[in-house]
Amino acid sequence: MAENFLGNYKSCVSARATDKEILKGAQDGGIVTQLFAYALETGIIDGAIVAGPSDEPWKPRPMVAMTKDDLLKSRGTRYNLCPSVSFIKEATRSYGLDKVGIVGVPCQVQAVRKGQLYPAGLRDVPDAIALVVGIFCMENFTYQSIQQLVEDHAGVKLESVKKMEIGKGKFTVKTERGAEIALPLKVTHKYNQPGDHVCLDYVAEWADVSTGSVGSPDGWSTVFVRTKKGEDVWAKAMAAGCFETKPIEQVKPGLELVTKLATEKITKNRKTLEERASFGVGKGLRNPYL
Ligand SMILES: Cc1cc2nc3c(=O)[nH]c(=O)nc-3n(C[C@H](O)[C@H](O)[C@H](O)COP(=O)(O)OP(=O)(O)OC[C@H]3O[C@@H](n4cnc5c(N)ncnc54)[C@H](O)[C@@H]3O)c2cc1C
């Protein structure tokens, strides 16, 4: 039987938020912001740890969003590391949250799940994790790398950037004044942070709900509903009219492309791990429940 590179899931759709305000500044279909906004409004969570803005342009800072306005500030993808997991204790202690939502790339989702299973450094916290939203990730960067890619390679100031996107083999920088600079992805590769080369998860397999742009048309997102909790929240959000959806089988490029990219990432990184194991460095982790 072929290996499952997409993780376990209960359903998969192409979707986008129905709230036009959310959709306007979202990276893709506004799934993360809409789902957290619904979960906040209905008390499923009392706050969400998101990658908010900071004093430096495009540098994310973990923030606890407790209102829809807070969530709106965190929309969009900041392609550099955001230490959101380290903020979990802050969320439960300083903010007093009992039901925490958190969004993260696959390695961050793994860290949250490990923290729930072995809460050595997260005493009293595991029960407070109420909704884990994962985002797909092929590669991430340090802030320094993003500065170099945008300012040296694309030739624009970070302050003037409206949106960055990775897709269709390109890293695209769109400016506030309407310019669009597309770099071939091979230019970005040497800037990938090293963890990218040992990660065996493309689609955030351990999240309650995980989402990314790949597989769906522009402005839409591919959404995997993975756990019982994810299914429950997604069904309620659907019933409340939060999302419009299309069957994933009816959109292009669909799951075929998601599977191809997940397979490429995991196969390539396994080789790196085997090489590392040959001189005694750890072997990496895939969801043992697959
Ligand atoms: C480093 C990185 C690499 C990615 N690679 C891929 C990929 O290869 N293929 C793919 O299909 N999708 C990828 N994505 C996901 C994609 O860019 C969108 O984030 C995702 O589709 C969610 O879009 P949305 O419209 O639902 O989210 P929105 O409603 O716009 O909300 C985005 C959410 O992402 C959070 N976020 C933003 N930056 C970060 C960050 N650095 N770390 C953690 N959380 C963050 C924000 O806090 C916000 O809550 C990547 C995202 C990141 C951060």
Protein model, in words:
- This protein is an alpha/beta fold and 290 residues long.
- The protein has 2 domains: 11-140 and 199-267, Aspartate Aminotransferase, domain 2, CATH 3.40.640; 141-191, Nuclear Transport Factor 2, Chain: A, CATH 3.10.450.
- Helix content is 32%, strand content 21%.
- It is built from 9 helices and 11 strands.
- It has helices spanning 20-25, 31-41, 68-73, 88-93, 106-117, 143-153, 185-189, 228-239, 255-278, and strands at 11-17, 47-52, 61-65, 100-104, 129-135, 161-167, 170-175, 180-184, 209-212, 221-225, 243-247.
- An 8-stranded mixed β-sheet has the order 3-2-4-5-9-10-1-11, sandwiched between helices. Strands 6-7-8 form a 3-stranded antiparallel β-sheet.
- Strand 6 and strand 7 form a beta hairpin.
- The longest helix is centred in the last third of the chain and has 24 residues, at 255-278.
- It is globular and about 45 Å long.
- It starts with 10 loop residues before the first strand and ends in a 12-residue tail after the last helix.
- The mean pLDDT is 94.
- It binds flavin-adenine dinucleotide.
